[in-house]
Amino acid sequence: MLKQDYYNNFFEIGQQKINFSFFQLGLPDDDPVYTLKNVMEELDFSGLLACYSDKGRTGFNPIMLYAVVTYANMRGVRAVDRIVDLCQRDLAFIWLTKGQKPQRDVFYDFKGKKLTGEVLDELNYQFMRRLEKEGLISLKELYIDGTKIEANANRYTFIWRGSLNYHLAGLLDTIDALYTKYNTFLLENGYGPKYNLGNARMFVIEGMDKVRKVIEENRKRKLTKHKKISNNTIIEIDYCSPLEIRKLQKNLMQIAQGEDIGFVYGKGKHKPEIQKLYEELEECGTRLMEYKECFEIMGKSRNSYSKTDMEATFMRMKEDHMLNGQLKPAYNVQIAVENYFIVHGYVSNDRTDYHTLIPVLEKHRKTFGNTLEAVTADSGYCSEKNLLYLKENGIRSYIKLQEHEKRKTRAYKEDIGKYYTMTYAIFEDERYYIC
Fold first, then answer.
1. What's the pTM?
2. Which intervals hold domain Transposase InsH N-terminal (predicted)?
């Protein structure tokens, strides 16, 4: 064979000449793709199929797409573009897709709209039942731990409850001054009796007295160079507060129409006093509604959120390369494991692990019934509320106490004020400590 023939054989129309079917190459008998398909045959995909309509053109098989995404994750591949490339080049992926070539928009739509958390949980729990039948897990013990995962949000887009409270106090002072200005305007011009309008009373928002006390205390501390107190009082702004401002604006508009006073706009034009008051009230009402929305997004369980990812909370991360304790938008991800299998996953915006234990255990109870007998976790989950929950539900607790290491010290053992070190006597099934 001439050298040119070798060249033509390899590069002919961009393809190699192969004298056997591509699928005859086969896959290794122990390839995980076979195990995946065997497991999937026993799963019920009705929840996933319910996300699709029976009308219109038939698209790619959603069960096949689920198999491709799952197998890609088994191989450590998560990028959609990489999955698309593997569906065209990798034999295992081609075997799963049966030669079809789904593009990136198919996977983005599938992962973003169809493969919801509810669908994933349902399929995962079916798999857990399969593992239980195989004797690999018992669903009677859980080992729980968590970590903080940085959110895909800008770092400097934080909204703090303390900052909102501080600026809200200033806004309410401004609104109070406008109420006084409004009443003075009616009194001086005689519009009250003429239009049957009474004096307006400033509305009250519960909790602002405490906020103002903290603000005054922090001003004193600033002068003495002491550390400030956190001003995280939970404030709720009801709809009545902005509506009260709208009523004043409505009254001013009624006066303007009755007195034939026109509002002017544009550069170089002199605005009448009633228009200035109207616009000041409108600006304050808009700001008050913005604060109301911020408090509603934040809720009662956290003191911060990110503008670009409103579900993320600013937390201290384990990785602190600058050693300055910088806060970053993140989520608290909890994993419950048994025999190396992940039974539950729970994502929270709580900064600590205290409030994440009970939701995970409730999730287990609702899914598998009252099968849980023991829970193991570190001291981050040790709280009175959690320990009482475990006791009331008859679950053995293997949670490390927060004072476990401290109790080993000599100073702690010799402290007679601790009831752990006191001698006691038992009388009629009750324990009495002796000081």
1. 0.77
2. 27-110
